[in-house]
Amino acid sequence: MEFSRIFAMTIDSGTGLVLEGGGMRGVFTCGVLDCFLDRGIGFPYAVGVSAGACNGLSFVSGQRGRSKLANIDMLERYRFIGLRFLWSQRSLLDLRTLFDTLPNRVLPFDYKAFFANPMRFEMVATDCRTGQARYLSERQDAARLVTLARASSSLPYLCPTAIVDGEPMLDGGIVDSIPVERAMTQGYACNVVVLTRQRGYRSRTRDVKVPPFVYARFPRLRAALSRRHACYNRQLELVERLEDEGRVLVVRPQRPPDIGRLERDVKKLSALYEEGYREAARVLG
Predict the structure, then answer these.
(1) Which end of the chain is more exposed for a tag (fewer CB within 10 A), N or C?
(2) What's the rounded Cα separation, in Å, for the pair 56 and 61?
């Protein structure tokens, strides 16, 4: 399939959607997905990491605008990022608001629509015991679905581990930030990849060995954390190579986002959301 013409065709059983994380930079993805929903574009399969996983949930349930409300409007109201949550929740994020108050009361998530959608959706988490990526999905249990989203989004060092089926999990971005290879191994040769960094970006953070007293019970997790930046850069190189070969279509910011991973400036976040929408519209033509 020629990707320069993908949206002139019917998206078929060989087309996947890959959603990078990136913390609050994920509002770019919110804009992209809302544009897709406005254009009536769907996929048979999607895989998301961290913020990408959370935003992907509202895409699958067809709730246009919900992710923007949750990430931007509700941030201004609830201020769910801050040091004050360290004492009560051992986290820089208000996990109770994010994974209970918002989806179950304030901005009700449409579980019925999500489960009725035949689209296959996976969320990536890191298994703390093995240090490997876990690709998780749920088609019936609402509580477990929320737990999977929380696991995929549990930032190392900043959030406690999430327990999934009795196993400790953390953010999937530790080991698979851009799961395009996962999509390909699942039989989706053609993929649309939504990134939250501009082309050419590489992490300049040097990997260092995580000391034994950090995550002392999980030596394989420490090993994964010790090489996470090199792993991320290899994935960025892979995506750019696949893009140059015409094997993936990438939607990404055109300039470096002026957004921190835990950004709280609502105006900046709103601007990045609008950029995501515009970039998706530009790609669609």
Answers:
(1) C
(2) 9
Q: Which amino acid is at 137?
A: S
**Among 99-103, 136-140, 142-146, 266-270, which is the least confidently predicted range?**
99-103
The pLDDT-based confidence of 11 (bands split at 50, 70, 90) is: low
**In Å, how far are 74, 273, 275 from 39, measured between CA atoms?**
26, 17, 17
pLDDT digits (tens, 9 = 90+) for 36-56: 999 999 999 999 999 999 999
Q: Which residue in the block uniquely carries the two structure tokens 């601007």?
A: 271
Which amino acid makes up residue 10? T
Query: Do the strands 15-19 and 190-194 form a parallel or antiparallel pair, or are they unpaired?
Result: parallel
Name the helix (H) or strand (E) containing 166. none
- Closest residue by Cα to residue 254 from 197, 194, 178, 193: 197
- Please state, in angstroms and rounded to a whole number, the distance separating the CA atoms of residues 103 and 191: 29
CA atoms of 245 and 181, how far apart (whole Å): 15
Contact between 166 and 205 (Cβ < 8 Å): no
CA 111 to chain centre: 19
Q: At what angle do helices 51-61 and 27-38 cross, to 10 degrees?
A: 20
pLDDT at 22 over 70: yes
Residue 101 per-residue DSSP state? I
- Distance between CA atoms of residues 212 and 218, nearest Å: 9
The CA dihedral of 57, 284, 198, 229, to the nearest 10 degrees, is 40
| In contact, 62 and 68? CB cutoff 8 Å | no
